[in-house]
Records
---
Amino acid sequence: FGLAAALGLEQLLTASQHFTRPANQRTWAILRTSFLLICAILAVVAGLSTRPLPLDDEGVALQNATNWLSESDLDQTSVIASHVWFEYFYDGDSSGLTTPAADLQPGTIVVWDQHYSERVGLVYDDLISLPDCWQEAAQFGDGPVAAIFIKSARCPAD
């Protein structure tokens, strides 16, 4: 195996000497420059022909939720959200859910979404079924796709 590798390397070096002769250096430079120019042209063409994907229903709903929240007079000190679209559009500070929903402080704003919220323990039916604990401030999309809830101070302790 070692002998075969040495012979292969010797053949490679012999072949590469063809391109290091003065007459072929210019040819090699032209080929290299042409290759780089073609790559650059292909990159520009690909960049110009690529179109961004439009927002899906979740993206639109969460963009509307961030707009609604930004225009509201709510105290946005504590905003909890789990969807990346909300994080993308929201200019304020928000965080993911790190404590159980029952332990959140009154006034906490929860941005519920149909995709990820239930995975982190924010079940829409549970929030709706506890009107003394959660006030639904707004809905976005059909179903809804997203909703904004505010933790109430009237919520009884567990």
---
Amino acid sequence: QRILLETVYEAFESAGWSLDDVDGSKTSVHVGVMTGDYLLIQGRDPDTLGGHAATGLSRSILANRLSYAFNLQGASLAVDTACSSSLVALHLAVQGLQRGEATQAVVAGTNLLLDSAWYIMGSSMHMISPESRCRMWDKDANGYARGEGCAAVILKPLSQAIRDNDHIECIIRGSGVNSDGQADGSGITIPSPAAQTALIQQTYRDAGLDPLKDQCQYFECHGTGTQAGDAAEAQAIQDAFWDGKKEAQDQNVLL
């Protein structure tokens, strides 16, 4: 919570806003979070849990603490969709802005490596590289390496940002979310190229774009460094943007 408070404060500073500017505003808060290592640590020694443990360790309070500290009065929620948590948090924030549920939104993501439990669980599933090195799309790929960090961005409807003369880093044309279900008959942790392709194409259509005509110039991938994950993602990108067309073979996209 402390690191999130500091990071979001810096995001407000970067946006050129003072705390008075956001005090009492209809600003929503969306925090992506997957693991809670400190809760695992504290749970091993329950005698040390104090009166503030419930609010200090709850994942929901990660967002609520920001709303409380900065007096932000829009929706406030933490999102856990594993590796996509921060992006799904951004998607929900975009939807809220489009529906007029908030005037602006704080989107943040945080991950701290404080305990060995997730290393043990990930290693037992052969997801984590025994060499602690992620070799994305490499024939020797054998898993990913965990990382930690905290980041925050401020979202606002484009027309409002232009009106207020805000510094604009980028424009979000669209966002989308789906699930594999039982696509391809694979397991719950195995990604589906078909589902990923469908999501990319639907998101483009919702944004008024054609993935086959409005060619992507830069694509940031999940990049798990696993044999199953890398192959699925590469296939999905190929199918979404080129659809097997021979004339597209000489076109490049940065990954």
---
Amino acid sequence: MVHYILINNAGTSSAHPFENVKENMWKEDLGLKLFGAVNCSRESFKYMKDKPE
């Protein structure tokens, strides 16, 4: 039996008081952590969906 997996692991650490976090900082953080995982998963799914179980 063969298993195909994708492990998404990306991130940074930047501690700031909530009131000092600017919109561009939120967008940058989400771009890396959320959309990085979404994009990798989307591309991997194209390959994995046609593989036998």
---
Amino acid sequence: MTEREICELFGVIAPTVRAEIKALCKSGVLSIYDIQRIIRISDRYSAEVYNLETIAALAFRVESFGAAKVRRALLERIIHERKEKTAVFVSVVSDGKPNSRWKA
């Protein structure tokens, strides 16, 4: 996504997005070299785009109605999208000695 698209998604202005990206990079959460790419649109035009990791990190950093909607959508996908059943197997083994410990 471009900076403009991020601004529209979160409902904030560009300086807010830039400041939050800078803060995320300064804190070590993101690396400036990994989060953005420059794509060529034509011979004369190019665009800086940010990856999904950046969008997700910004969603949890920016306080706006749009960011809250993105946070909810991300968490909804993470928590509720797993429809398949997950089996958990725990084996309890004892070697028969009186002082043996349970192993799981």
